[in-house]
Amino acid sequence: MSLQLGDIAPDFTQESTAGTINFHEWAGDNWVILFSHPKDFTPVCTTELGEVSRLKPEFDKRNTKAIGLSVDPLEDHEAWAGDIQETQGQGLNFPLLADGDRKVSDLYGMIHPNANDTLTVRSVFIIDPNKKVRLTITYPASTGRNFAEVLRVLDSLQLTDEHKLATPVNWQDGDDCIIVPAVSNEEAKTLFPEGWDEQKPYLRLVKQPKRS
Questions:
Q1: 112 falls in which pLDDT band (50, 70, 90)?
Q2: Catalytic pick from 9, 27, 45, 127?
Q3: Which of 119, 145, 171 is the last residue of a domain?
Q4: Catalytic residue at 177?
Q5: Which of 35, 38, 48, 183 has the most beta carbons within 10 angstroms of its beta carbon?
């Protein structure tokens, strides 16, 4: 059975470009972006790894660690890192798991046999500090991921964990949010004293509060 939202992300120990990773220990009290790659020395993956490396300051601001995975061996990962630096202008600055035995891939359901029975698809997992899976996205091998969307969802999750809110379609950090239906108007007066725009009893828009 594949991982579902709210499940505890499976723990594992695996080698990586940053040494042995004991996953839950490595994650600590951080949020985690875990994402898989079909194969080393492939063009789309090379661009993705460069982009995640460039985004490290953004992940750091959000108390988030990134960790990648490919089923190729560690020595290939290390050689590939040079190509990433050369072509993307950014060196690898997060661990890349060497999942040659497919231990992690199988735990997380990253191999979809009807697509390819040996290579991982482009899986993305957002995992919170309680080790719960909060988002899953699966892309085909031919399509590079949109990491701006991953950051957007991360912002939404962190905001809505802190406040009794949801985020509407195409929301970006700083846009108006939605008061969740479970919050009564009486409670909302305390939570959001500056008021809100009630378009329907179940659709109440409010200015985004400050994030801690």
A1: confident
A2: 45
A3: 145
A4: no
A5: 35
